[in-house]
Amino acid sequence: MNESSSRVVVITGGSRGIGRAVALRFAEEKAVVVLVHYDPDDEAARETEALLAEHGVKASSYRVDVSSRQAVVELFSEIHESFGVTDVLVNNAGITRDTLLMRMTESDWDAVMQVNLKSVFNCTQAVLRPMVKKRGGCIVNISSVVGQIGNAGQANYAASKAGIMGFTKSVAREVAGRGLRVNAVAPGFIDTEMTAVLPEKVKEEFLRQIPMSRMGTPRDVAEAVYWLASEAAAYITGQVIHVNGGMYM
Length: 249
Ligand code: NAP
Fold this sequence. Notes:
binds NADP nicotinamide-adenine-dinucleotide phosphate
């Protein structure tokens, strides 16, 4: 059990990109950081652990497919046993399988819905009862600007991210009276491995749509997540905070 007063923060997809930046942001308050990732090549997770160690935080990482319900149930029972009840859950794991709907396969659709949306159901449900019992806790779900405005070639991804917005608002209403807050952050075009693979033409087109004329950094997103999980946001629940340089207003 976590005997200190440090918050227990679980970040899915915490090995790299936005999840890593979120982990580093929470490391600044010396939180107990738990990273979840799935790639058998765990080099990114090791790197994140090393970066967290530089902040004096000993992070734990677990290799779990967050779309698997049973695996998630077991994961959180282990986390709660080892560190205590989750104080902050950041549902950040996500993938893309971009293609026009005419060409989209059932497996393109299913993979994205499972990893991006079902995982949010799995992990949120796993922490909810203990959080309710403790009468405190915070959940931040990572959606996307395309869940709001759509994007050609991303019908599966946009649907999963719009689903996260509806999920966030519904669960926020269910648990607000129990002292729990549930919010979402919808990043715009952020500089990570997910966007690095996009063709130059697509990147230029995205940049043209951003009034601030630059990609966001993972840290830009992490600051919003951190703030939503802080006491400064104590009266904020069921909201979607857009971090997108003005791409959608
Ligand atoms: P990223 O660099 O591709 O990182 C994705 C993370 O998710 C990795 O840590 C990955 O770990 C983990 N992950 C993927 N599948 C998983 C699974 N089945 N189980 C557990 N973990 C899994 O992506 P990112 O750009 O940081 O994006 C993070 C979140 O922000 C995603 O939800 C994404 O949709 C959202 N977002 C990103 C942008 C953007 O422009 N980058 C914009 C809007 C929203 P492994 O590789 O070890 O599996």
